[in-house]
């Protein structure tokens, strides 16, 4: 980054914002099967190719969907911050399209966990345990819960949330894919979770939880897991470069969470009774595994 000419650097980043918006617009037209304006459409595609020659045609359907969700979320978050820079932290999205898109993108996490189980026999056994159960904290639109039910057919899935607009969409999605018998949805605060020795694996998205909530959640989840059960936690990945790391911390605080360091998270997990803590090099969500 140029230290002598900040205006030039700002303008360069503004071009990046416009390029991302152009790519998102093109992907949205494709997803919605619309032609768009005949004069504008080629310009959107040209801007996308200028970012990388493989864009947008080099993205498969699943990649397009994931990128569209990520772009929509980032632009919405940025616009909300610019419109109200004094806003308090916390996740308050109401738009069902955005909530659904974020949920669809979260399905990758299930596949990251499945891939991690390939060389972790105890985790693999937990994911295939007959009569086992998976707890999805902050289930949102329930797409992560739905994907878990599909990938791990031995497990019953319970999704909990306290954001009613998301739960309404979750109920619709679970019914739409015919998984009502496998996926249970609850309006429930994780800090008052009363299940005891029920779940084989639990999922906890730390960026959306204030520190006291996260600490209380660890205690309740420990009680809710079976002996030897697993907990998977998420943080926004924090790259070594200054700007991406700064933005990762900003996103976490905006979402209502604490930017946990590896050391602080390990200490909190050990105090809650977890052991064998391991950080996985996954992106854009960094996963941590812990076992009782």
Automatic annotation (TrEMBL):
Residues 135-229 form the Methyltransferase domain. CDD domains: AdoMet_MTases (cd02440). This is Methyltransferase domain-containing protein. It holds the Pfam family Methyltransf_25.
